[in-house]
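Reader question, answered in our methods column.
A reader sent in the components of a multi-part assembly and asked whether the whole thing could be modeled at once rather than chain by chain. We filled in our standard form and ran it. Here is what they sent:
COMPLEX SIZE: two components
ENTRIES:
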Amino acid sequence: MFTTLLKNKEKIYSFFVYLIVFLSSVFPAGDKDWGWHYKYGEYFLKNGKILTSDIFSWTMQGYQWINHSWAYDPLLYILTNLTGYVGLALIGALINLLTFYFLIANFKLDYWKKAILAVPFILISEVGIMFGLRSQVVSTLFFAILMFLLIRARTRLKSIFFLPLLFLIWANFHGDFTLGLLIVGVFLGSYFLIDFYKTKKFNSQIFWKYGLVSAICFAVTFINPFGYHVYLESIRHFSNPYLKNVYEWMPIYNNCSYCHVSSFIIYALALIACFGFYIMRKKLFTIPFLILAIMLIWPTIDTRRFLPIFVVVTLPFLAGFIQNIKLDLSKYKILPLITIVVILISLEFNLYNRFTNYKLYNFTENDFCHFASECSTKTIDYLVSHPPKGKGFTFYDIGGYLIGKNIPVKLFIDGRMHLWKDDASGYTAFGDYIKMYYGPNIKLFNKYDFDWLFIQKSSTIMKEIYATKNLGRWNIEYQDNDLIYLTRIRQQNQLKPTFLKR
Amino acid sequence: MTTKEKIIALIIGISVLFLVNLPIFYFYLFPKDNLVFLGRRIVNSQDTYTYVSFIEEAKQGKIIFDNLYTTQAQIPSLIRPSYIVIGKFASIFNISSTSAYHLSRLLLSIPLLIVLYKFLSLFFETSKKRLIAFTILLTSSGLGFILGGLIPGSTDLWIPEANTFLSLAESPHFILSQILMIEGFLLFLRFLEKKKLIYIFTSTVLFLFLSFEHPYNMFIIAPIIFLTSFFSNQKLFKSAFFASISSFGIIYQIWQAIANPILKSWQVKLISPSPTAYLAGFGFLIPFSIIGAEDFIRQNSIKHKFILIWLFVTAVMIYAPLDFQRRMIEGIHIPLVILTTTGLFTVAGRFKKQIRLLILYGTIFILSLSSFYIIFNDLNTIGKDSSQNYYYYISKSESEGITWLKNNTNESDGILSNWFFGNIIPGITGRKVYLGHKAQSGNFDQKVELLNSFLLNENIVTSVEFLKQNNINYIFIGNFDPLLSYGFKPDSKPFLKKVYSKGGVLIYKVKYNSP
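And here is the structure of the entire assembly that came back:
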C-alpha cells in the first residue's frame, strides 16, 4: 500500500492542493442580497413567470426592473431549501474550486506549481467568495470556463464552438457576460492577427469561423426575458454617481482587509515580470493577456469587485509561465516534509481556526443574520411580531434579509435598487438614501417625515438623533448590538404633513 | 571553546541584553516630571502586572497564588515556583515587585544565553559558525518592520515568545521556561547518546518543573520526545513512556483548569494568527532554514533529526485544535535559527570570500532589523508626551494613592476602579480588583457593562447590592478618571465614604451598614 501511495504521490498531493483551495474558499453564507434573490426565485417557481415590477419597496413601488440574474434566483431558492446556509457556503466554495480547476486545466502542472498558483487565487478571489454562494461567484466560474475554452482553442479549434452555449447561459445568470464578450473579442482578434503576422497570409476560413462564433455569442445574449435591456442595465453602472457607496464598488485601497492589497501588488508585480520575460523573447501569445491586464488593472484597483475577474483572466497566463519552469524538485529530500507540513497547517487552519471562527460547525439563523447584515434574529422577530406602521427608513444592507424573511412591511431601500431611477422624474431612492444616511441631509430627511427607522446604531443619522432634535423626536422600540428600531413620537394634535416624494 | 570565543560570545550577549533592556532602563532612569514609569513596554503590556502581582503575593507571604484580577470568591490554586522565589528575594532585599520583575528577568537572561550557546555548540563545530548562529539567534526577527502595514498581525511585532530577542524582554517565567526546555532537551539528547538513566531522569525533573511554569510547552515537548525516541530506534513503548513521564506535570494543570472555576474563566482563547502573519513574522529565516533543513535531513544523526522533528511538531501544533494553540510557538525560533545558520553558510559558501562575508554580515543585519524596530518603537512611543502614552505612566499622586491602598486595606478587600488602574493595582498592592485584565478578570465585557450600569444607577439598594455581590470594599478614582465622565458622583452616594483625597486622587470606602 505504501508503495502504491508513493507511486501516486503526485496525484495525492494534487488532491490536497484542490482540497485546500476548496476549504479556503468556504466562507459563511452572508450575501446581503440573499433575501430578494430568494423571493424572486420563489415567485418564479410558484407563478411560472418572472417578477418584473417591484413589490418590496414603498419608494419605487411598481418599478420595472431588469433583473439580469433572474435565472440564478430559482436556483438559489432550491439550493437554500435543500441545503440551508451551510450548503450555500459549501456550494460557493465548490464553484470557486471549479473556477480554479478550469483556470489551470489547460496546463500540465506539478502539484507544487498548482500550489503556487492557488495562493494568489485564494487570496485575491476572497472578495468574490467571502459571502458564500452569490450570483457573482457563478459568473466568475463562467469567466474561468471562457478562459479555458479560449486557451484550448489554440490547440483544439472546436472548443470555440462551445462559446455560444456558455453565453446563452451566462446572459441569463449575470450581467458580467458583457465583459465576457469583450474578452472573446480580444482573444479571437489577437489569435487571428498573430497568425496573420506569423504566416503573412489572410486565412479567410479562420477569419469567418472566429467572426461567426463571435457574432453568435453576441446574438445569443439577447435570448433572455429582457432582450437588449440587459445591456442598458450594464451601461447604467457607468453613470451612477452613488455606486461608490456600495462596498463592492469601492476601491481596493479604501479600508479593505479582505482585498489583500499586498498580495495583489505582489501578484501584479509577478505578472509584470512574466510579461516582460515573454515580451523580451517576442512571444506573441502574451498579447491577449497583456491587453486584458492593461484594460482591467485600473478598474480592479478602483473597484474591488473586479479583483476575482482580474485574477481569473490573468492566472492562466501565469500558469503557462510556471508550466515552462524546468525545476526538478524531486532531488530535494526536504520537499516531502515541507509538503506535509504545509498540507497539515492548511487543513488545521481551515478546519479549526477559520471554520470555528465562522461558526460553520453550528451555523444558526442568527449567524446568517449577523454575517449578512450585522443583525440579530431577535430584532427581526420583534419586527415580525410588532410590524412597523407607516413609511419607514431602512438600512440598505438589511433590506435583502428583511425581504427574505417576509417582514410584513415595505422598505425604503434594498440591494436591488442602487441603479433604479424613475425615468420621468429622475427620482432615485438610493440617491436620497445616500444623502440622508451619510450626510445626513436633515432637510431631505424631514421632508420624508418617516414614521419609523430601522438603522445602524453607529450611523451618522443615529448620532444626529442622539445629539440633536433636528431629525424629530423618536422612541426606541427595540435594539440589538448593531441595529436600532425607532418610531416617531408625534404630538396628538400634530398633523402629518403630506409626503412630497419628488 | 577558546577564551577568545568566550569573550566574543560574552560581548554579543551583553550587547543584546543592553539593547533589549534599553527602553526600560532609560525610562526608569529618566522619568517624566511628576510621572511614575510603570515599567512596561508595548509588547504584551497588559500581562506585565499579572506577573508583578504574583511577585507581590509571594512578597506578602503566599505560596499558592490567587487570581487578583477578580473579586469573586476563590480558593488559591496557582503554583508558580519562579515567582515564589522572586517574591521571596524581593521581600528579603526589600525591593518593589516591579523592580524584582525586571531584575529577575535580567538575571535569568544570563543562564538562558549560556544554555542557548551550549545548545548551538551541539550543531556547529567551528567557533565562527557558533558565534554567527548565536548572533542570529539573539537578534533575528521577521519582516514586521516593513510588512507590518500590509500583513496584519506580523508575529515578530507582538508575540514575544516567537523570537528570542523579544523573549529576553519578556517576563521571567518565559525566560525560565526556555532555559528549562533547552536544558531538558540537552539532557534528553545526551540520554539517547549515552543511554544513562540519570540523564532522562534529570530531564524529566526539569520538564516537571516546566509544566508549572509554562504548561503549554509540554504539548510540544511530549510529541518531540516521542518522535525523537522513535526515530533513534527506541521501541514504540519506550518512546511513549519517555514522552509520558516528561509531561507528567501537565496532569495537575489540566485538573486545575477543569476543576477551578476561576482558572476556567481565565482560559482565554489564544488562537494563532493566519499563516501569512507567521510567514511575515519569521521573514527571511524561513527560506534560509529550508536550505539548512535540506542539509540536516541528509545527516544521519539523531540531533539533526531532533531539530527537524522540533520544527515539524511546532509547525503542526500551532494550528492544533486547541484554544491555546498560539502558545505552542515558544522556542521555535531556536531550531529555525540553527537551520537558518546552516542554510546561510551553504549559500555563502558558493561565493568568493569578500562576497561571502558581505552575504553573512548583510544577512545578519537584515534579519535583525525588526528587533531594532521594536526598540525604536518602544523608545519612540513611550517617550512621546501624549495622552495616548499615559498608558505607560501614572502620576505621582496616583502612585501615592495606590500605595495608600496597599497600606490601609486588607487582603480580603476588593477594589473597584477603571480597568487601566485595575490592571496595575494588584501588582502594586497585592489586592483583588473587580476589573483589570481582559482574560483574567473573566467575562470582561459583561463586567464592563455591569460597571457602567452601576455608575449610572441612581438606586441605592441595587448599587449596594452590586458592590456586595462583587465583594467590593473600595473605589479608586485617579486624575481625570473616566469613572467620573458620565455623571457618577461618589460624594452624593450615602453608601460611600471618602477615605483618601490628595492631588486629585480619591478613594472611597463602601459603607455596607449605612442606613
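What stands out: Chain B has a mean pLDDT of 91. Residues 3-30+96-382 of chain B form one domain.
Send us your own complexes using the same form.
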